[in-house]
Amino acid sequence: MAYKHSIDVDRCKGCGLCVTVCPKSVLEISEKVNTKGYFPAYQARPEDCIFCTTCCIMCPDVAISITGTAEPGEQRVEAAATEEA
Ligand code: SF4
Ligand code: SF4
Question: What's the CATH code of the domain at 78?
């Protein structure tokens, strides 16, 4: 399973909650303003992300998502992960 972490920059209000809760200090607040005039969060150290979903859960604006892509032959792994959740 390959995971992708993404932040919808224009939904983000730059509150910094995700930056605070990330256990791996992956996130920081950007110095570039978004279309709504806020400074959004971004992944400063994406290589450290463990895809724990804490930032997604904490974001009050539902701006962060993690998507998973099953590789061929990984369906059994995906089913097991769903049962545990
Ligand atoms: S998924 Fe977890 S490790 Fe990755 S940025 Fe969010 S809180 Fe940090
Ligand atoms: S918690 Fe959400 S709104 Fe707040 S800085 Fe992070 S992505 Fe932006």
Answer: 3.30.70.20
Query: What is the CA(13)–ligand 2 centre distance, in A?
Result: 6
- Report the atom number in ligand 2 closest to the C-alpha of 38: 8
Mean pLDDT in order along the chain per 10 residues (85 residues): 95 98 98 97 98 98 94 64 52
Cα–Cα nearest to 18, from 83, 70, 67, 49: 49
What's the whole-model pTM score?
0.84
Structural domain tally of the chain?
1
Residues with CB under 6 A from ligand 1: 5, 22, 24, 26-27, 49-55
